[in-house]
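> call design_seq(struct)
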């Protein structure tokens, strides 16, 4: 029952008044239905099928008096007309109520979708470093579909419950003894079926776990399909997939077994109960035939609803784990929230006029480990100059950039932009000041134009081409079959690695940021294109703060400042020429080992 409440409470918080109107509608429908059943007695009597006494039927004692004033040949027509009006009225109301149910449920799902998506966007980068992406996709697609089903069922359950209660009230008015007899049997069955509900919960938990594995597997495998194919790993992946599909199959079959077992028990027990009921009614309780007829009609319609209630309950319970994972995800996001989307004043970029100061910064990815990714970093990145960060793989270069642009918060120490701390309020503004090109450039499955406009929706045609020229991509874009309107494929798969990097660079520059961050952004370029970009960056000096990570040391030849990192610490710092001259320093060693000649 707590699970049903769980849904109803959430729906109530969300829909409020609409839920009560919906309930009132259901009460009206149930009254129409009950009254329609009562009308069967005068109808059958008037046709002459059986001689039934109307006087004993609640709400109908006035009928003989009214009919007494009307010629007898109109009686049947009148009762039939009243019956038709009732049923049509009931159907119209039922339709309206179904539409309202769907509106409540769909707007509830929309609210859940949007609020979860917003929470996800507001979560910080650390949250994404710790979370498996496929788990997020799984919750946002498959689990949300289950929640949607659960909320439909919870609403249906609530309305079925109201309907059942009112019908039971109608039955009680006809005969208390008979109604109590039927209800006692129903209760017995409900107690007996508690075991089924427990099993439904267990199966529901398994469904969540299995489909999470399924989503994660599919995402991982197809992200790594090149590695799978080139290393002949198809068979082992297929084996894993087969075994998972087998488990999923068993899970659903077990659920069907559970549901059909409930249905079987209800059907079998109904047969036994009906026989027992008729026997007791006639032989022991000696009820009147019209009472027996009405009770049979009411419960013949209600009994399937009992089964429905039970089945709905099992289904709702099996969807609750989906809802719980959705809520947990939202809570995790809210816990990791670094900003509130909206509030345009917050997005005004910070101009970065003096520079970025990193003061005594420490950072660990895992607080329980002794390994620091950054240790006591003190550095000043002057505005409108080029700063290069170099060091061996794993030295902490990308982590330092993430800290500088506020993607991750230092564990100790602080970041000051033009002398002011980068607190949560200024964080969002700082992001608007920065354009960042990562090691793994990402393009959306859209045209080159759309990919560029995502960064700057108002950019003119000239501005787009200017950005493409900056990144040395205008020529190859012109040569593409559909030029700037060519679709780049999933993650830009239809372009070469170097072409992708250049488009992402164009996108970054299009925003005209105050700070341009390039993390190995030209690693896939040939010497000729790399030289073009180096020259373009050289021209930006004086207008933009540029921070570059590059293994290819020729890229940073014009850097005003070079920071050398080793195991999370700054070991050297100074101008390119100055560091090249320090023969015992790490930088000159790197120059000596550098595979690329410095052009
Ligand atoms: N998400 C993460 N979780 C845990 N540890 C991480 C994570 N990302 C990086 N690290 C660790 O932090 C340290 C610094 O990593 P970082 O990516 O900053 O190095 P890098 O100098 O940029 O290396 P590369 O040149 O290979 O990109 C490394 O020891 C790395 O293993």
């Amino acid at each position: 029952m707590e699970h049903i409440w769980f849904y109803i409470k959430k729906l109530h918080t969300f829909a409020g008044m609409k839920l009560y109107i919906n309930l009132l509608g259901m009460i009206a429908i149930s009254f129409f239905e009950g009254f329609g059943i009562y009308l069967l007695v005068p109808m059958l009597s008037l046709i002459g099928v059986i001689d039934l006494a109307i006087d004993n039927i609640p709400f109908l004692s006035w009928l003989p008096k009214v009919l007494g004033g009307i010629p007898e040949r109109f009686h049947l027509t009148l009762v039939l007309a009243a019956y038709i009006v009732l049923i049509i009225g009931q159907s119209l109301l039922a339709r309206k109520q179904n539409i309202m149910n769907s509106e409540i449920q769909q707007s509830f799902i929309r609210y859940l979708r949007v609020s979860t998506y917003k929470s996800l966007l507001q979560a910080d980068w650390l949250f994404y470093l710790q979370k498996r992406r496929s788990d997020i996709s799984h919750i946002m697609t498959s689990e949300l579909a289950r929640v949607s089903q659960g909320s439909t069922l919870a609403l249906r359950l609530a309305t079925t419950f109201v309907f059942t209660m009112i019908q039971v009230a109608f039955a009680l008015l006809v005969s208390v003894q008979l109604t109590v007899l039927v209800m006692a049997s129903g209760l017995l069955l409900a107690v007996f079926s508690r075991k089924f509900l427990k099993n439904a919960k267990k199966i529901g938990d398994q469904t969540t776990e299995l489909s999470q594995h399924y989503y994660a597997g599919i995402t991982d495998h197809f992200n790594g399909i090149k590695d799978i194919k080139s290393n002949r790993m198809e068979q082992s992946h297929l084996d894993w997939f087969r075994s998972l599909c087998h488990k999923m199959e068993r899970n659903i079959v077990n659920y069907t077994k559970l549901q059909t077992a409930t249905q079987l028990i209800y059907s079998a027990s109904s047969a036994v109960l009906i026989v027992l009921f008729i026997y007791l009614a006639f032989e022991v309780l000696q009820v009147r035939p019209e009472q027996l007829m009405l009770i049979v009609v009411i419960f013949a319609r209600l009994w399937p609803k009992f089964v429905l209630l039970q089945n709905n309950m099992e289904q709702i319970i099996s969807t609750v784990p989906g809802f719980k994972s959705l809520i947990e995800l939202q809570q995790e996001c809210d816990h990791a929230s670094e900003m509130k989307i909206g509030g345009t004043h917050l997005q005004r970029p910070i101009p970065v006029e003096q520079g970025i100061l990193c003061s005594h910064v420490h950072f660990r990815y895992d607080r329980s480990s002794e390994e620091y990714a950054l240790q006591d970093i003190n550095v000043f990145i002057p505005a409108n100059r080029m700063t290069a960060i170099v060091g061996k793989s794993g030295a902490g270069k990308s982590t330092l950039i993430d800290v500088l642009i506020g993607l991750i918060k230092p564990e100790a120490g602080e970041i000051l932009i033009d002398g002011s701390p980068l607190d949560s309020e200024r964080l969002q503004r700082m992001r608007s000041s920065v354009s960042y090109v990562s090691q793994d450039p990402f393009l959306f499955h859209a045209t080159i134009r759309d990919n560029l406009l995502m960064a700057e929706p108002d950019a003119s045609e000239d501005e787009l081409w200017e950005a493409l020229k900056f990144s040395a991509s205008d020529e190859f874009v012109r040569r593409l079959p559909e030029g700037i309107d060519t679709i780049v494929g999933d993650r830009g798969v239809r372009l070469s690695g170097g072409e992708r990097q250049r488009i992402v660079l164009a996108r970054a520059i299009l925003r005209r940021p105050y700070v341009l961050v390039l993390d190995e952004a030209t690693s896939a370029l040939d010497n000729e294109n790399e030289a073009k970009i180096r020259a373009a960056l050289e021209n930006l000096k004086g207008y933009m703060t540029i921070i570059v990570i590059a293994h290819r040391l020729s890229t940073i030849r014009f850097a005003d400042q070079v920071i050398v990192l080793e195991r999370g610490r700054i070991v050297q710092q100074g101008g390119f020429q100055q560091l090249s001259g320090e023969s015992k320093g790490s930088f000159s060693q790197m120059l000596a080992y550098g595979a690329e000649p410095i052009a």
